[in-house]
Amino acid sequence: MRDVEVAWLAGLLEGEGSFSAPPPSDPKRVRILIEMIDLDVIERVSDLVGLAYTQPSRRRENWKQSYKMTIRGHKAVEIMRSVYPFMSLRRRAQIARALAAINSKV
């Protein structure tokens, strides 16, 4: 990704993403999750990271359709390291915890 794309993705993840340490069942697989109702934005993320998004079922009929993308494993680690310098202290702490979790299990 180009620098401007990394910065754009960091801004989006700052507001709409979450960074998770790996679950006990798969201790080396960190995760980035993003879910939103803006199809054009999730399509852009999909193009940038080269992964598909899903369209979860609506929880209520009158709610807008949302779109979800989960980035796992090496791709998530790569993105976390790329966006880290652009993130707030709280998000940096989340990323650091996730990366520390996989490093402690190697």
List the helices and strands and how they pair.
Elements: H1 3-16, E1 17-20, E2 31-36, H2 39-49, E3 67-72, H3 73-83, H4 89-103
Antiparallel strand pairs: 1-2, 2-3
Overview of this protein structure:
With 106 residues, this protein is an alpha+beta fold. The chain has one domain: Homing endonucleases (Endonuclease I-creI), CATH 3.10.28.10. It has four helices and three strands; from the N terminus they run H-E-E-H-E-H-H. Strands 1-2-3 form a three-stranded antiparallel sheet. The protein starts with a helix and ends with a helix.
Short summary:
With 106 residues, this protein is of the alpha+beta class. It has one domain (3-103): Endonuclease I-creI. It has helices spanning 3-16, 39-49, 73-83, 89-103, and strands spanning 17-20, 31-36, 67-72.
Kindly provide the name of the CATH class. Alpha Beta
Calculate the mean pLDDT score and round it.
92
Q: Please identify which CATH superfamily we are dealing with.
A: Homing endonucleases
Q: Enumerate the strands of the largest sheet in spatial order, edge to edge or round the barrel.
A: 1-2-3
Q: Based on helices, strands and strand pairing, what is the structural class?
A: alpha+beta
Compute the separation of the termini in Å: 27 Å
Give the tally of β-strands: 3
- Residue share in helices? 40-55%
Computed over alpha carbons, the radius of gyration is 14 Å
Low-pLDDT runs of 5+ residues are: none
Order of helices and strands: HEEHEHH
- Known CATH architecture: Roll
Largest sheet: 3 strands, antiparallel
Strand percentage lies at 15-25%
Shape: globular
